[in-house]
Amino acid sequence: MAEAVQQALMRHGVLLDAEALVSASAIAGSIAAALPFLQQAQRLAIGSFKGDSTALASEFFRTMADKIARGDSAAADSASENPVPAVGPGQPAFQHIAEQASELQSMVIEDWAGEVAGSTYLEENFRIPRSTLHRWQRRGEVVALRKGGRKHVFPLAQFVDGRPAQGISEVLSAIANPRLAWFWLTRPAPELDGRIPIEMLREDRIEDVVRVARTFS
Hints:
Blueprint: H1 2-11, H2 18-34, H3 40-48, H4 53-70, H5 73-81, H6 95-99, H7 101-105, E1 116-117, H8 119-125, H9 130-138, E2 145-146, E3 152-155, E4 159-160, E5 163-164, H10 168-174, H11 178-185, H12 197-202, H13 206-216
Antiparallel strand pairs: 1-3, 2-3, 4-5
Helix pairs in contact: 1-2
């Protein structure tokens, strides 16, 4: 995250000292982590905002700096009530994702899961027979996300050469909630050096991904 922020700032001709860069990357990461768990109406409101976002950001930083300078007790109380999970040996940095599983269940699939499709599309474009797809689903070999009543859709990024990437079944065995499993598979994992698990599965890096998924479970 720090490297990505630094490159973006440099492309726009902005240079920061090392301390400011660390702060910028930490704040950018916190915002990116918080956005997926906002209510849909809040995300839509943010996405449709046409005002001066730079002015809002400046106001946020001024308020933040003032509170820190004053040693704001309210801010300290809030932090103690909602502590950030400490990261240490044997303590997954993505533990907070599991705590948000109930919110993830109510989120609109298209907002977070990437491109998905139903069985008709997969049969016509990926040449995967419905019977085969349903067999994979029954055996827990493919990520199937419920959409609406009884309908399921399937994230397309999990398929390699017309079948689920190897390791999907092991991840689903470790993380039984399909939404939570796919959410984890598609986000950078600190335990995997910031790499995205589903991308590693597509590259046959199965052992590392399954090991971390079992730790997560």
